[in-house]
Structure formats: C-alpha cells, structure tokens
Amino acid sequence: MATEVTVPVLGESITEATLGEWLKQPGEPVAVDEPIASLETDKVSVEVPSPVAGVMGQHAVAVGDTVQVGAMLATIDSGDGAAAAPAKAPEPAATATPAAPAAKDESGAGYGDQPGAGTGDSPAALSPSVRRAVLEHGVDPGTVKGTGRDGRITKEDVTAAASSKPAPAPAAAPVPAAAPAAASGRGEERVRMTRLRQTIAKRLKEAQNTAAMLTTFNDVDMTAVIEARAKYKDLFEKKHGVRLGFMGFFVKAATMALRDIPSVNASIDGDDIVYHDYADISVAVSSPGGLVVPVIRDADQMSVATIEKTIGDFGKRAKEGALKMDEMKGGTFTISNGGVFGSLMSTPIINPPQSAVLGLHRIEERPVVVNGQIVIRPMMYLALSYDHRLIDGREAVTFLVALKNAIEDPTRILIDL
After folding, report:
1. Which of 50, 192, 301, 409 makes a 20 to 30 Å CA pair with 222?
2. Angle between the N-to-C axes of helices 304-320 and 247-260, in degrees from 0 to 180, rounded to the nearest 10
3. Residue 230 CB: number of other CB atoms within 10 A?
C-alpha cells in the first residue's frame, strides 16, 4: 500500500514552491518524519518529511518543477526498505522519468550496470546539469566519487573526473560542434533562477521603481569599539557563550538613533505614514541561495549579548537552510554588513516596505585629523539609503551622526544617551 506525500502548507499567502532537491531516491528506506525533499519558497527552503515509514516510491515531480500547496510530490510504499532497495537496483530506469531511458540509450554508457545505480549514481538521481556534463564528457558516473550532499555527484566532480582521464578525449571526435568550445574554453551553462533569487530580484527592482532613493554617507572611528571588544571579548564569551562582535554595538546604536529620528523607522502605506514604537531590525545574512534578512524582534529591548546570540543563530541556520518564514516577515529597519566581504563603500537598496537601510563596510586604517594632528585610525564608511518621500536629508544626516557618536563613544549606549 502506498502513502501519498503532498506539498505542506508553506505559510500565509504562499501557495506554491519549487522542488529544489530530492533527498530520497526510489527504493531507499525512509523513516517517519525523515526529510525526503527540499522545497524552495520565495524566502526560505523547506524540507518535506515523510508521514510514514517505508520505502521511497515514485517521484511525481522533477527537480525545478513548480508545485502547488496540497499537490502530490511522491509516494511512500509500505515494507522493509532494506529488502526493497536491492530489488530496484538492477532496474533504475523503472523509477526514472520517461526521458531518462532515452538519454541512457543514446549515450551508450550503460548506467544501469553500475554498482552505484541505487545509491545516487543513477540517471534519476543526477541533477540535470550533472547528467548533461556526464553525457558531454562521456564519463561513467559509477566511477566518479561524489563530494556533494549525501555523497551525490556534482558537475565539478564530473569535470574533474573527465580532466584526469585521457581516454574520453577520442570519444569527443565524432561531435564536431563540441570541438571549438572545448578548444577555446568558452563554455556556457543556462541555469534557471531559484525562487529565492527571483523574489530578491523582483523586490529590489520594485524598491527602485517605487521609492525616491537617496544615499547619505558618513564615516566612523572604530577605535573605542575595537578597544572595548579586545578588552572584554574573553569574559563576554565565557559568560554569554557567544563571541562579541561589532554588529551588537551597531544594532543597539541604531535602535537608539531610530528612537530619536522616528521617520527612519517608519513606512509609507498608501497616503499614510506608519510610525512604529518598536524597532524590529532586519539583518542581512548569507545563505546558499543568496542574502536573506531575518528579523530581530524588539531589538530596542535587547542587550548586546542577546542581539549577538540572535544574529549568530540566524547565521548558522541560514547556512543550513533552516530559517523559518515567520522569521523573515516584518522588520522596520535593515542593517547590511558588506564589510565582512571586504566592501569599502556601497549604496544599499531599501527592503520594502521599510524606508531606510544602513550599510556597514570594512574597517580600514586611514589618516585623519584629531585635535589638529594627523593620526592613523581604524575607520569605517557608513551608508544610509532612504526613501526621500518620507525622510528628509536633515533627518538622514542626524541619524548617521547619532549613530556615529554612539559607536565612537560606546558609553553612550550604556547610559542611553
């Protein structure tokens, strides 16, 4: 008896997703609540768990397909997975899509005869780009050691295997069209944008089309914060279990500046201006699919230690694709730290419906004048991009100066000045 696995409810107003990856192949044993597939939504990746224990049955959709909430993804067959898997190994084509056998026959590679056919090396288990690379290079996937997730073969694995074997070179001779590309090294690959990347592109362009964006710059002397961090970082980590970074100082200083300049923390809704008496700070963190912006709720009520713990947790789960959609909603102000990647200066784009975003950059020693003397100080450029429909230049400059004062004299943060 087979149990259907359907697309779960993905969140408010989200009705569809894209199948990003199959985590279980037909014939493999599956435990209850074990993830069998990964879905990409507009904001995060969501793993689909198996509702029952058994053996992975037929895949109903392919990687890259768009699926609606409630649609069938696959079936889980009842029975002992250990016994069922070997039975399927000699016939991987039975669980592949109709196009897979044709590709196998044309290449003449004999994938079904490989010992790894039931463990991720079969055509059904290979992603489209990897399958294409296998066919182009004439590489036997059974001889390629996978370095991807769960030992899966990647395109780079196929390329490395092809370059290390001189034998496949003569096989390319019957294909005249491939010779010029191989000789010049001018290859191309067309990859469909992920749903997350499509959403990022849409929202950023929407911000440019809607907001009257302007960016104001300032710089800040990081000496005091660097000295405080060096002095207390060991005690801080010992007490709170998290490293003391710079973001905790900037988030706390930003919440104080937002309180003084409320329009920077506001948003436009039609003909109305919505002012917030709280500060929900969106922080840009890197994920495998691009930058995402989880929200630190009520950051103005948090200590520096709590802020650092929250950001650390966001960063870890973003890399694992484990952020929840509710954690990405809302936010009244965004901080993006391009300095971790070496950025000297940038003009960040507003994250709608917010009206401002603060860009942080790398710390660089530069000569500055202090008390009439030229000295070397660790300096950072600050960039505030804002919607000029709501925020005037005076308010933007005042916000940056308040932030600069708090960072250059961290005692202000302690005494709320």
Report:
1. 301
2. 120
3. 10
Q: How far is CA 301 from the centre of its chain?
A: 28
Stretch 342-354: mean pLDDT, rounded? 91
Confidence of residue 98 (pLDDT cuts 50, 70, 90): very low
The answer, yes or no, to whether residue 39 has pLDDT greater than 90, is no
Query: Tens digits of per-residue pLDDT, 120-173?
Result: 444 445 665 666 677 777 777 777 777 776 677 777 777 777 777 654 444 444
pLDDT for 141: 75
**pTM of the full predicted structure?**
0.61
Question: What is the mean pLDDT of the segment spanning 368-381?
Answer: 95
* CA dist 317 → 19, 45, 180, 296, 337 (Å): 20, 11, 44, 14, 18
Q: What is the CA radius of gyration of the chain?
A: 27
The model's pLDDT over 177-195, given as tens digits with 9 standing for 90+, comes to 555 555 668 888 888 777 7
Nearest 10 degrees: CA dihedral of 288, 69, 313, 351? 70
- Structurally, at CATH architecture level, domain 196-415 sits in 2-Layer Sandwich (3.30)
Q: What is the model's pLDDT at position 220?
A: 97
Q: Is the pLDDT score of 11 beyond 60?
A: yes
SS3 of residue 262 by DSSP: helix
Catalytic residue list: 388, 392
Query: Which of 174-188, 226-240, 261-275, 395-409 has the least mean pLDDT?
Result: 174-188
SS3 of 308-336: the string is: HHHHHHHHHHHHHCCCCHHHHCCCCEEEE
What's the CA gap between 403 and 398, in Å, rounded? 9
3-state secondary structure of 240: helix
Measured at the CA of 410, the angle between CA 221 and CA 358, to 5 degrees, comes to 60
Residue 211: what are its φ and ψ, rounded to 5°? -80, 150
DSSP state of 147: -
User: Where do we find the tokens 């800040």?
Assistant: 220
Q: What ranges in 185-328 are assigned the alpha helix state H?
A: 195-210, 223-240, 247-260, 304-320
Residues in the chain: 417
Helix/strand number for the chain, H first, E second: 12, 19
CA atoms within 13 A on the CB side of 201: 7
**Do 42 and 6 meet the contact criterion of CB atoms below 8 Å apart?**
no
Quick count: other Cβ atoms within 10 Å of Cβ 194? 17
- What does the domain layout of the chain look like in residue ranges? 2-184, 196-415
Q: DSSP alpha helices (H): ranges in 121-177?
A: 128-137, 155-164, 168-171
